[in-house]
Structures are given as structure tokens and as C-alpha cells.
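TODO from last week: model Cupin domain-containing protein.
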Amino acid sequence: MAWGETGVWIDGEENMPLYQNLLDDAASAPERNARRNKIVRPDEMPWEMSRQGLLKHLINEAMNTRMETVDAYMQIIPPGSKSGKHRHLAEECLYVVEGHGYDLHQDCDVEITDVYFWKPQDEIKRFDYEAGDVIYVPPNTIHQHFNADPDRPLRLISVINRIFKQCGLNDLEQIEDAPEYDPSITLSPETVRAFLRVK
């Protein structure tokens, strides 16, 4: 009988305005979004001395921007240096702004059940690039960027979709730190310029 389970589903005393919260959020979005930046000036883009290297964040969900789905940063790799090596579940696209270099990519076999399991494949592939090129990093690929020029910096713009994190798939692992990584350093235009000088 359809009503036979009444004794079970009718239990519970807690009330929450969850649907009303959705309505309120939708109603307040235009005013809230009007206060969020559609233009981000260079002095509003935070630097980070990260394990992946020297980053200048262009768009990030922690910044007050109108962008809802994408994070982007500029990575500056000093002459003859390299980025950190990492792996993440989301695919990534990088635009080579300045310089030339190469990537090393190592695909992984992945299994997602109640737990997440990945295993690197044996083959490591090299991809050479120069200014104006676009680099595609497939999902769950171990990768690292190398500046092939001993005299000039390599600048990359990295773009990644942040939606995968909201789906519970924020799998990010740092495998090797960038040579410049030092958490005690605070980046500024002056300290970044010092990193870009040929030693």
C-alpha cells in the first residue's frame, strides 16, 4: 500500500528554508554581482610564491570578480628554470605569452569508485612550444613546464575550470616543488624582477 511507509517518512522535526534560500539568492544576485569586478587591474591581481612557482592570479574564486566558473593565473618561469610538477583531475589550457620551452606530460590510469586511485603510465611525452602557442594538459596528467631559454623568462597564462571542485573532484597533488619556492618570500614587482635576472 502506498501509504504504508507513512510511519517512516513522516518522522523528523527539523525545518529549513532551503528552497526559499534558493529564491533569495537568485533575487539578490543582480545587486551582488553589480558589486563584483568585471575589470581587474594589475595592482589588484595577487602574487603568490607557490609550490608550483611564481604566480600572478588574474581570476580566482577568492577574488571579487564576476567570473563564476574559471580560474586563471600567469606563471613566470625564470631563465633556465622550471615549474613545480603536479597533477589534477581537471583539464588545463595554457597560453604561451613570452619565451619558449617545453612540457613533460605523463598520463595516468585512473579509477574513481568510493576511493580515487591513479597510477602513472611509463611513457613521458615532451611537447615543445613558443610564444603564441596554446598548451593543452589532459585531465589527470602529471605535468611540468620548462623554460628552455637561459636568458629570458617564460610566461604562461593558465586557465582551468573550477566547476570540477564543486562536483567533489578537487584532486590536486604537488609532486615536486619549483626551484624558486620559498614560503618566506613575499613577492613584489622588485622581487619578481630579481628572479628574472640571469645569474
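Done. The domain at 41-196 is CATH 2.60.120.10 (Jelly Rolls).
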